[in-house]
Amino acid sequence: MGRWNRLAIALLVVGLGSLAAAGLFVALGVFDSDYKGPGTADPFGPSVSYYQTPQPTLGPTPVPNTAPLARFAIPKFGVEAPAETPMH
Asked: How far is the CA of 71 from the CAs of 66, 76, 85, in angstroms?
């Protein structure tokens, strides 16, 4: 047997032994424990809303202007044109 084969077999034995030990600890922990879960889900301390920033309240909605649009302008891009209304 080569040197690398011995190392591979040794690592395989160590790995399988570790898995077997972990399985044993889990089995003993599951079957020999009196643990019945997390208990209560009741929160403690102030609620989350205590730490949240209050949201601003909106004022009344302004009445929209009913005047027809006559001109379409975007000064940043130099656009200025008459507005066309769709035919009904």
From this structure: 15, 15, 11
